[in-house]
Specification:
With 315 residues, this protein is an alpha/beta fold. It is 43% helix and 13% strand. It has eleven helices and seven strands. Strands 3-2-1-4-6-5-7 form a seven-stranded mixed beta sheet, sandwiched between helices.
Length: 315
Amino acid sequence: MRKDEITLVTAFFDIGRGDLDNESLRRTTGRYMDDFSRWARLKNKLIVYTESKFAKEILEIRARHGLSEKTEVVSLDHVFEVEPAMFQRMCQVEQKGSFRAFRYYENAYSNTAKYDYVMLMKYWVLQDACKHDNEKGNGVAWIDFGYDHGGVSYPNPEEFSFLWDYPFSDKIQLFCLNDPNQISGADSLQLSYDCMIGGLIYVPVDLAGKFWALMRDNMQALLSLDCIDDDQQLLLMAYKRQPDWFEIHLSDWFLPLKEYGGGHLTVRENGMGEGKKNHARKMADRILKAVGVRVSDQKDFARRSYRRAKKYYPE
């Protein structure tokens, strides 16, 4: 293996998403494995953190693509014991009615402690992989286990059979839907505005530990406000706190893999951008309803909230 080859890192922990009543959010273990099997053709070394009961299936998927020797599975059966005090505090915040009332999506999945905690663990996993992998190159890249959600953007899974590589700089590479310098962190926390893309992130090995410490500190900061959120918010906070650590690339949900090293990948027509537009429409409708409910009691707050929302979700 070349010294500068990018090592891919991912993780899968079953947090009960397959049992959700909300069909749009429901994802079974089988679906996650199917999604993983598409991009598991990537010829990079891959380190997977997961519960021991999934290790065999994950290894078999990589073996089908002839990549057993480039796959390492790290069993982690007690992920919620990595930061137990933090997780307990997150669970307490989840139950606060005031927190949910503050958020425009009162029932958003990012309002749940288990989900937000596992999203935070991405960054613990990255730094842990760097400590234990003696063959890593200059950088590692996080890739979501369910990347591309079964073909949202890339219709031809066989095209993932390549060694992903790109001459990134020595900074953390973040991919964003919008310029984070133009986004208010407070607005993002309340309105759940999509800006940062957490599905693919490149991290130089020597920054992985510092990156984890920063992301952990960001969650602690949210908890001090009686709030929690997923890693999109934490990434925005990280960039605003340490902008010199990062290099920003404007892209769309799954396009970074193609734009930075995977130019041969076929993109589904209209496969990108529509999700962002639909989210904006739904959010605008949600804000309009919120204004109608609150205007009788809190007219000024409703007007201010509406103006901020329209900045991100214009009609």
